[in-house]
Amino acid sequence: MARKTPEESQKTRDAILDAAEVVFLKKGVTHASMADIAEQAGVSRGAVYGHYKNKMELGLAMCQRAFEADDYWKEGKAVNVSPLERLRRQHLFHMKQYCESDTQRRVLEILYTRCERTPENDEMLRLKEQFEKECEDDHMLLLNEAVSSGELPRDLDVGLAFAFLNTMVCGQCSLLMCKEMTPEEFMLALEPFLDASLDAMRHSPALRKR
């Protein structure tokens, strides 16, 4: 049998990762098997094991593919833009990616709703927690910079403001996702809500230190 070209091997890997997204979303990571993924991909189990030695290695590759092209952090490093505007851009960019990338949306749904807390899934759970920690660190840094620059009140409770903003934006996103909306309609509905949440951080006494 002729050896596969690099392009053919990549096509097989992509088919396996596409299949993993479907199977993990349907069955959950714990109950999915390599045989299920092979069947969904239309390849042999040997082909799956030829690329990934076990289900967790496959799952991590699936996650890495979903986020490798994500320029999320670049939005927070724009020059000549205030800290609060950088934070705003990060939220909008991340939500836009979620709306427009089927792969990223499926993988996030797997990580948050279909990756059970079992020892078998520890590596994928750690990857999710690492991403959450990076987000928190970056957002807290931008909030503190906004306080230092005078964009936000000096007595703002930054930890509470971070939790408030994330809760409000994520909650609104969850509500919007229950509706039949195009990505453009979704972003148009989200943007004023995000701006209102940022205004609350500027003016709400409840978000000040006590």
Give the tags.
210 residues, mainly alpha, Arc Repressor Mutant, subunit A, Tetracycline Repressor, domain 2, elongated, Tet_transcr_reg_TetR-rel_C_sf, transcription, repressor, DNA-binding, HTH_TetR
- Helicity range: over 70%
**CATH fold topology of the largest domain:** Tetracycline Repressor, domain 2
Query: What is the count of DSSP helices, taking H or I runs of 4+ residues?
Result: 9
Global shape: elongated
Amino- and carboxy-terminal Cα gap? 73 Å
Please tell me the CATH architecture of the largest domain by its name.
Answer: Orthogonal Bundle
Please give the largest β-sheet.
none
> Kindly state the mean pLDDT as a whole number?
89
Q: Give the domain tally.
A: 2
CATH class of the largest domain: Mainly Alpha
Could you list the spans in which at least 5 consecutive residues all have pLDDT below 50?
A: none
Strand/helix succession = HHHHHHHHH
Structural class: mainly alpha
State the CATH superfamily name of the largest domain: Tetracycline Repressor, domain 2
Strand content: under 5%
Count of extended strands: 0
